[in-house]
Amino acid sequence: MIERAFCDAEVVREAWTTASRIAVEACQVEQSAISAEVALPAVVRFLGERGLLGLVVPTALGGAFDTVRSVALCLARERLGHASPLVELAFAMQALGSHPITARGTDAQKSEWLPGVAAGELVAAFALTETEAGSDLGGIETTARRDGESYVLDGDKILISNAGIASFYVVFAATAPKGEKRLLSAFVVDGKSEGLDCKRTRVLGGHPIGSVMFTGVRVPAKNRLGEEGDGLSIALETLHKLRPTVGAAAVGFAQRALDETVRHTKTRKQFGQPLAEQQAVQMHLANMALDVESARLLVYRAAAVSDLVAELKGAGRETDAQRAHVGRTSSMGKLAATEAAFRVVDTAVQLHGGRGVVEGSIVARLYEDVRALRIYEGASDVQRLLIARDLLRE
To answer: Percent of the chain having pLDDT more than 90?
Structure first.
């Protein structure tokens, strides 16, 4: 499966070369801004202008390929993650926030939102998490009540990337009364809707993230994705598609930490010799390299499986077993890569010594940013449960 996916040289060349070409310039755009809230929309515009956001939507709507390719998304997120966590986040949220529309939207919905995403003119967001609903999506309390040709949304979402910045949010809300079977539905909500308010949350890494509150927010019924009750399947389909790409971002972070550490240990002298000549340090470097390469292989295996099964689905030949295989491999890729990246970055800080904890240093920033990857889009322990349950069903 992996070999078949990578035989499509166009995908690899387009994603990797474009991301590599613009990564440094994108970092300059980020660094010229006065805050993350200002930087992120500017980076999104830049990525759109340079064509990289074409990877997140289909060709017919301004994209690079006929369908959204997981391998391409992974290649871009790895390269951007190596350059800058914030630049990587800007790309990632365009993919995550728009994929429900790509996967389940009507032609009209796709035409309204996706060209702007690809051009970098619209900033996307994915509003799923709530105070009592993180790993347990059954705990979602935000409601959507039908009222004529609209739905009225009430409730609060927390820890939403691009809160207060997004042009639109894909929001998941319950469309059945409390106490009955909770059916989730998905809606595209304009970021300027009356009754929608946002509050910034301070987190490690300083990314733009916060709470989004809905108080009587009216959403046209035409903005519902799929049918009522399709929300859970839309959310899970999106998470399965994007999980390998979280692993790819982790690989990018880890590779940058390894590169910085190799450079540091070659030049930093202790006890009369470079750190790199000390056997204990060499052991650490070897373990870091092993973690990076092992994680990379699992991530791209998961992406290749996802792309192949998507191709079979398009041809009407997808099976339940293949769908389950996508879920398992995506969980494995995400779990292995994010856990490995945390180990690698932690070791990088240790080998940098005091320099590793200086605020603003590369490895210190990576240390702050890498931690969240083990939580969002399915925490590590949730991935372990998903993998185990799939194994036990065999």
So the answer is: 72
The total number of residues written for the chain in this structure? 394
11: domain CATH number is: 1.10.540.10
Examine the domain organization and report whether 170 and 99 are in the same domain: no
Residues 166 and 236 in one domain: no
Q: Show which of 122, 157, 175 is a domain's final residue.
A: 122
Up-side HSE of residue 314: CA atoms within 13 Å toward CB? 10
Rounded Cα distance, 41 and 122, in Å: 9
Residues 199 and 297 in one domain: no
In sequence order, what are the beta bridge partners of 151? Answer: 146, 219
327 in Cβ contact with 240 (< 8 Å)? yes
Residues 46 and 131 in one domain: no
Residue 173 CA, chain-centre distance (Å), reads 21
The set of catalytic residues is 377
Burial 252-268 (b: 16+ CB within 10 A, else e): bbbbbbbebbeebbeee
Contact between residue 153 and residue 217 where contact means Cβ atoms under 8 Å apart: yes
User: HSE-up of 192 (CA within 13 Å, CB side)?
Assistant: 3
51-68 pLDDT, tens digit each: 999 999 999 998 988 889
Contacts of residue 86, Cβ cutoff 8 Å, sequence gap at least 6: 30, 36, 39, 40, 43, 207
Phi, then psi, of 184 in degrees rounded to 5: -95, 145
Instruction: Flag whether the pTM goes above 0.85.
Output: yes
Q: Do residues 109 and 63 share a domain?
A: yes
Same domain, 377 and 253: yes
Q: Domain range spanning residue 109?
A: 2-122
SS3 142: coil
